[in-house]
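INFO batch 0412 | record 1 of 1 | parsing
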Amino acid sequence: MPHQRLSLSLGYDVVLAEDFGGLAGELQACLPGSTRALVVTHPRIRALHGAALAAELHGVGIEWLEVPEGEAHKSLDTWRALVARLLESRPDRQVPVVAFGGGVVGDLAGFAASTVLRGLPFVQVPTTVLAAVDASVGGKTGVNVPQGKNLVGAFYQPRLVWAPLATLDTLPVEERRCGLGEIVKHCIIAGGSALARLEADAPALLAGEKAAFAAAIADSVAVKAAIVERDPLERGERALLNLGHTLGHAVESVLGYGAVRHGEAVAIGIVAVARLGVARGWTSPRVASRVEALVARLGLPTRVPPGTSAGALHEAMGFDKKRARGMVRLVVFSEPGEVRLESVPEGELGALAELGVSA
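INFO prediction complete | emitting C-alpha cells
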C-alpha cells in the first residue's frame, strides 16, 4: 500500500503507512540531528510491535518508557510517574517523545511532553483505529480525573503522525469496531456521500478488511484535520468534533474508565443526540433511524448498559468542558453535513441521559 499523506498547515504531516518502513527518514526530516527517542508504550504493544519499530529506528538510541494499559490508568498518578521517568532520562529539548500505542498512550505521552522542559518534541505512532482517526490528530492531550474525562490537559501538536496499518492486524475485533464510533461521527459531520460510503463498506469493515479500514481511516483523518486546521484551539468550529461526546464522556465516567470503550461511548452519545433531535425538532426521524441503524450494524452499542442511572449520567454531564453560564453547547445534526451547536440548559440534559438509557 502506498503511503497516504496529509500535510497540515499546523506544521506536521499525517502519514498512513503499511508498516514502519520509512519512519526513520521522516523523523530525521522533521527532527534533524536527533539521535535519541523516548518511546512511551505499554508492555503488550511493545511485545507485539516493539522489535519492528526498533529495527526501523536502528540508528536512533531508543529508551522504552512503559505505562500501564487501559483508560483507567490515564490519570494524574500515571502522568506524574511518566514525567519523573522522562526527567530521569535527562533529555534536552531536541529529544522526541514518541507515543507508541492507542489513545491512552498518546494522550499521556503528549501531556507529559508538553510539560517537561516546557515542551519536548512529540511524535504520534498510533496502533489502533481509534487513535489513528481521533487521538493522534489535533493536539489534544490530557488525563482523566474523578470529576470527568480529559479535564486536565493541554493543546500540544505533534511534529509527525505515522499510522502503521499493519498494527491493526493484531487488534481484537472489539478494538477495531470501537474505532468505528469516531468514524461514524466524522461521516455525519462530513455529509455528502461519506455516510453512504460507510454504510456500503460496513460488511467489509466488520470482516476486518484492511483496504476498507485504510479508506475509512483516510477519509476520517481528512475530515478531522481540515477542522483542526481552521480552529486548532476549539474556539468555534472544532467543537463540532464533540458530537456524541457530551453523553459519551459521562458514560465513561459513571461506569468507570475502561468499562465501555471510548468509541462505544461516542456511538451511544450520537444515537442519544439523534433521539433528542427528533424530540426537539432538530433531526428528522428518517435521519435518526438511519444513523441508529448504521451504529447497530457496525456492532456498536446504541444505549448504555442496563442498570445505568440516568441521574448519575445527568450529574456527570454537569462537568462538561463545553458548559458556560449554566448552558452546555450540545452538538446536534439535522442531516449528514448539517451539524451545529445548540445551547441547552444544564438542567435539560436529563432528557439526553434518559434517551441514552432507554430505547
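INFO post-check: Residues 4-170 form a domain with the Rossmann fold fold (CATH 3.40.50.1970).
INFO record closed
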